[in-house]
Design brief:
By secondary structure, the protein is α+β, with helices and mostly antiparallel strands. It has 6 helices and 11 strands.
Length: 257
């Protein structure tokens, strides 16, 4: 999460920059949305030793297990103004959703994106308490009407950051996120992504975004200065993982709200 926050900070401050990231998880972790109430976003009594962190994006709590992929994309405002990603939240989400559908297709997974949110998703109490994969919001990716990619977005000074969980191997559940009304067959013995599997997904991810956007992406070089900045943000996030973190103050003095 700290690296995602660094990506967004870098995109905000660098004209015409777009950054892509694909990663997975060494340890199963729960993340919850920027605007969720920490006391009700998950069941504290059944958390156990699972780490929890608040995201800088909205949305609901979800469990990231080591069998999933997670993506993130940070876009400088110049690219938004040029309409490469659309200027509204909805349009940007739609454009990215269509690219993600093509990415899954390259990986042998047929999917589609939701054209509208369900009525239940607009209920405030459901928003604060329901786990992410218990909802079906507009522009999220589904397979056989079951969500397989859940995404969340944040904007600052016209720049955009979006990240999301990609359940390429199925869904694992967690006792701190009860899903009593969620009609999905869960499997808590999912295989961890192998290096070969991840490398293949990573190649397809990069190639799909490059083709769909007609852009060339290069591997990012992390400088010594970048490393110091990233480590600083990482330490800050570790100490304030449950609090709302305000991206515009990075990397000097990240503000807590």
């Amino acid at each position: 999460m700290a690296f995602d926050e660094w990506m967004f900070s870098r995109a905000v401050s660098t004209p015409a920059l777009i950054l892509l990231r694909l990663y997975s998880w060494d340890l199963g972790t729960i993340t919850f949305g920027y605007n969720q109430r920490a006391e009700s976003a998950f069941d504290h009594d059944h958390l156990g030793t699972t780490p929890v962190i608040r995201r800088i994006t909205g949305g609901r709590a979800l469990y990231h297990d080591p069998s999933e992929l997670t993506y993130s994309i940070a876009i400088n405002d110049a690219l938004v103004k040029y309409s490469l990603f659309g200027e509204s939240v909805s349009k940007t989400s739609e454009i990215i959703a269509k690219i993600l559908v093509q990415f899954l297709k390259k990986c042998g997974i047929d999917s589609d994106y939701k054209k509208r949110s369900s009525k239940q998703d607009r209920e405030l109490d459901f928003f604060h308490k329901a786990p992410c994969f218990a909802s079906n919001s507009k522009n999220e990716i589904v397979k056989d009407n079951i969500k397989i990619i859940a995404s969340a977005q944040r904007r600052f000074k016209g720049s955009i950051f979006q990240h999301g969980s990609i359940k390429v191997n199925g869904h694992a559940t967690h006792p701190a996120l009860p899903l009593t009304d969620y009609n999905i067959n869960f499997n808590n013995k999912l295989n961890v992504l192998s290096k070969n599997m991840f490398d293949n997904f990573s190649t397809q991810f990069n190639d799909t975004f490059a083709e769909e956007l007609n852009l060339n992406f290069n591997n990012l070089t992390i400088s010594a200065e970048d490393t110091v900045e990233i480590n600083s943000i990482c330490e800050y996030v570790k100490q304030n993982h449950m609090k709302k973190r305000n991206i515009q103050k990075f990397p000097v003095e990240p503000a807590i709200i």
